Hints:
- The protein is of the alpha+beta class.
- The chain is built from 19 helices and 16 strands.
- The protein is about 45% helix and about 20% strand.
- Strands 8, 9, 10, 12 and 14 form a 5-stranded antiparallel β-sheet that branches.
- The termini are far apart.
Amino acid sequence: MSHNAASPENKAAPASDAVKTVDWQDFRDHIATADQSGQRKWIYPRKVRGRFFRWRTWFSWLLLLVMFAGPFVTINGNPLLLLNIVERKFVVLGQIFWPQDMILFAIALLVCAVSIVVFTTAFGRLWCGWACPQTVMMEMVFRQIEFAIEGDAPRQRELNREPWTAEKAFKKLLKHGIFFTLSFIVGNVLLCYLIGWRELWQIITDPPARHLVGLAFMVGFALLFYGIFARFREQACTFICPYGRLQSLLVDDNTVLVAYDHKRGEKRGPLRHVQTFGQRRFAGLGDCVACNQCVAVCPTGIDIRNGAQMECVQCTACIDACDAVMDKVGNPRGLIRYASLNGIERHQRLQFTPRMAGYSVVLAALAAVLGFMLCLRSDVEATILRAPGSLFQQMPDGRFSNLYTVRLLNKTSHDMPVELKLERPPGTLQVMGVDTIVVASQKASQNSVLIELDPSVLHPGTTPLVIDVYSNGKKLEALKTAFIGPRN
Ligand code: SF4
Ligand code: SF4
């Protein structure tokens, strides 16, 4: 594998010079999950136990509860989260966002993105290790099932090398059966977030021929998640996830990461039985006893002692593994811990750097714009257009009339009575064909509206009009248009 840039010099170089030979001793020159022939190296992380694993387990169960219960939770009759791309309908925390709210939605996404940038600059990939659905499902659900069925890493290795026996076949069938069932459930939960659980239920209960596309998505998502959790695994984080790729841009020497204290740990060397730590120091050795337990538990197959790496998902497994070793050898915990490079080298606490200040200003500005737009956002989207092909008319009493079409979109989850009032100039407004306009929940209505004005209030040619939109006595919006009249 080469990291050569395709510079003009490189292009001009002879083929033999253009390809850099991989230095297999340099961890930055190759990935941990491929061997020298380019084949995938299957990672068998060992079981890990410790305080961080315990905290992550509790937190993961909470997240899983939220994730699986989310589609069934409603706020004001709307789902907690719905991202219906096909119908272009988005619901966040019970608030419906229509295509007309796209700018608002885009700013909300920007606020999320900049928040992630600020958070990552301060705390690195904390999200990946603790809250990313991929890590939570892979490490806390699928990996634990694998441990329960096939045993710890050495036993899994052995099992995969063994010839096929009834026991091996049973274990593999059981594991992959459970994996596929879980993947099917996860795929359906995702579908619930995309189309809503009622629609999904309809797909399940209706005759299959009526929902072929829906059924194809159900099977497709199940296969996709099965492929990810059974085979693709850590590669989703190291190859695919764009957030992981951004790390090198976002983290710096002040970012708090899962880090190995090289000042305390180096120089590494195995612990001899008769040796005290004082004697180790005298011999030029550090606290790392070179047991490799931190590497053995790593789900991405890296050695954290090499320093911060893009592949590290900050899962804390190496902290727990190393703490257990330190407990055994009678040394203080924390040889691997949450720390910044400056924290390790200069004992500096978390700094509020100019970079973080800059990101925070951008975030505050975007949040202010979002807050302002949310305050201005109306429950009803109203538009007014002159009825196509209509001109002004003079009534028998001498007044002039214009005909308009008013389109109302009810963004709420309840039916809304709407009243239109002519604000200025003085005149009459009549909604044609109905006594009261009632716009059904999440639906649009269109009404013809006749406006009559006295010649005394008309300007030559066009007169500005303001029509207020009310619901239950509350003014929601003011529509502006023009009234066409005689030029003189
Ligand atoms: S677990 Fe700790 S002591 Fe063992 S190799 Fe890793 S850093 Fe060194
Ligand atoms: S280096 Fe440590 S924190 Fe990073 S992925 Fe490996 S085990 Fe997890």
